[in-house]
Amino acid sequence: MYATSKGYEIVEICQETVSGNANGDERHGLRRAEALAIEGRVKKVLVHEISRLARRNSVAHHFVETLEECGVSLYWQLRESKRSCRTGSANPAAGIMLALLAEMARSEVELLRERINSGLREARRKGVKLGRPKGTTLDRKVFLQKHKDVLRQLKAGQSVRNAAKITGKGVSTVQRVKLALAV
User: Which of 103, 126, 167, 174 has the fewest CB atoms within 10 Å, i.e. is most exposed?
Assistant: First the structure.
């Protein structure tokens, strides 16, 4: 781990499973890192690459501005770049690189989405049947029985994400169980 190799004290590791394309208010890990900076508990935030921060320029820039206001530097390992100089002021070259990389990450998502949609359109044009074959869905009762571990967690008051983590099942599976439970 980079932080350990540099002798940094790790205050907290902020992780999230939500898409980097999500709105800033949906990014709980990002908000937690901001809170640590505002509280003065960290001097540096380390990320592997800019797309891990956000795939939206506005979200990435807001985060970096918050860090700068708190005197906290940002280091992204993949490019070995720092967002602030030793003096604590912003590094202009790193700022330009941040903007460029955040925009590239956003464009990457749009390109991927367009390729997927193009492939689906082409498959439909060729008459390919998409989706689950008819008759392969489980009856509600059988489905709930199959996922009784998830059911138990939801009934115990766990959130969808926590239930997924505890049971080792996907968030979408837990969401389907919750929906089936509500019917």
Answer: 126
Query: How far apart (Å, rounded) are the C-alpha atoms in residues 1 and 71?
Result: 24
Give a three-class secondary structure readout of 92-136: HHHHHHHHHHHHHHHHHHHHHHHHHHHHHHHHHHCCCCCCCCCCC
Q: Which two tokens stand for residue 169?
A: 């099942």
Q: What is the pTM of this model?
A: 0.52
> Is residue 166 within 8 Å of residue 153, measured between CB atoms?
yes
Determine contact, residues 24/30, Cβ cutoff 8 Å.
yes
pLDDT tens profile 7-65: 888 999 888 777 656 666 778 888 899 999 999 999 998 887 767 777 777 788 888 88
Question: What values do phi and psi take at 133, rounded to 5?
Answer: -60, 145
Identify the CA nearest to 27 among candidates 57, 64, 52, 61.
52
Determine the straight-line distance between the first and last CA of the chain, rounded to whole angstroms: 47
CA distances from 156 to 8, 41, 151, 163 (A): 39, 34, 9, 10
Give Rg (Cα) of the chain. Answer: 21
CA 105 to chain centre: 13
Give the type of residue at 59.
V
